[in-house]
Design goal:
This protein has about 270 residues and is α+β, with helices and mostly antiparallel strands. The chain is built from 2 helices and 21 strands. Belongs to the flagella basal body rod proteins family. It is found in: Bacterial flagellum basal body.
């Protein structure tokens, strides 16, 4: 009986965490460059139950022979795995702002060992000088003319240097070359992650690498579109359906938990009568 409480409780916790993940995806359905989180529900290792009994052998000393009688397998509950972003290309949304830049992926290689497709990112530098990565191309110019993201992190060029402009009157070619007053100022930096699932989430659509800075991407694997933003890749319709399914699963576990609770009340009443 008590094992049932733990099994049902683990199911409710897993569905609650899944609902929170889906709610976060829905809340960021309109966030530029947001990558939807995904996860799966897995079961803990099952236990093989056996009944310990003893068989009395009719000898002078009354020897008892212990043995095991198989009962069957018992589930020990479920859990939700760590959430992982889905690094697929979002649709493009036109804004008309020169500082809004969309990064468009080309044919990217697939990791032969894991089967995971690589991903591209804008290069950023935070206040501590560390390199971060994002797909949100909603940039702006700070007071010093540096191209920055909404959190104030500096956008880097292909040489890892900050991009400084005179004003927002500039153009960007498909290859990422920034032109101002008829001269090339810099080339937007793009990094390639061979295994994007290994990146660490930093919040606000930012990622960091555990193994130093990511290498630069090949020029023929991407292009840019000025005046556009990459929209979130969240499928709002499917996310809402998954949220309803998670809620129903939570509700079903709750009903089972209530049934266990009523059974325990009956057992207590019987014990008092006896």
């Amino acid at each position: 009986m008590f094992r049932g409480f733990y099994t049902v409780g683990s199911g409710m916790i897993a569905q609650q965490r899944r609902t929170e993940m889906l709610a976060n995806n829905m809340a960021n359905a309109n966030t530029p460059g947001f990558k939807a989180e995904q996860s799966s529900i897995r079961s803990f290792p099952e236990m093989f139950m056996s009944n310990l009994n003893a068989t009395r052998i009719p000898t002078e000393k009354g020897l008892n022979l212990k043995g095991l009688s198989p009962v069957g397998e018992l589930s020990t509950g479920v859990y939700m795995q760590e959430t992982m972003p889905l690094f697929t290309q979002g649709s493009l949304r036109e804004t008309g702002l020169t500082t809004d830049i969309a990064l468009i992926e080309g044919n990217l290689p697939v990791n032969e060992e894991t089967g995971e497709k690589g991903a591209l990112f804008f290069r950023l530098e935070n206040g501590a000088g560390n390199e971060l990565y994002t797909r949100n191309g909603n940039f702006t110019l700070d007071a010093a003319g540096n191209l920055t993201n909404p959190m104030g992190h500096y956008v880097l060029d292909s040489n890892g240097q900050r991009i400084q402009l005179q004003n927002d009157n500039f153009s960007i070619s498909d290859a990422g070359i920034i032109m101002q007053d008829g001269a090339a100022v810099a080339t937007l930096g793009v990094s390639f992650a061979e295994q994007p699932s290994a990146l660490m989430k930093q919040g606000n659509g930012l990622f960091a690498s555990n193994d130093g800075n990511l290498p630069g991407a090949q020029n023929n694997s991407y292009s840019f579109q000025q005046g556009y933003l990459e929209a979130s890749n969240v499928d709002a319709g499917r996310t809402m359906t998954d949220m309803l399914a998670a809620y129903r699963a939570f509700e079903a576990n709750q009903k089972i938990l209530q049934a266990y609770d009523r059974s325990m009340e009956k057992a207590v009443e019987i014990g008092r009568v006896n």
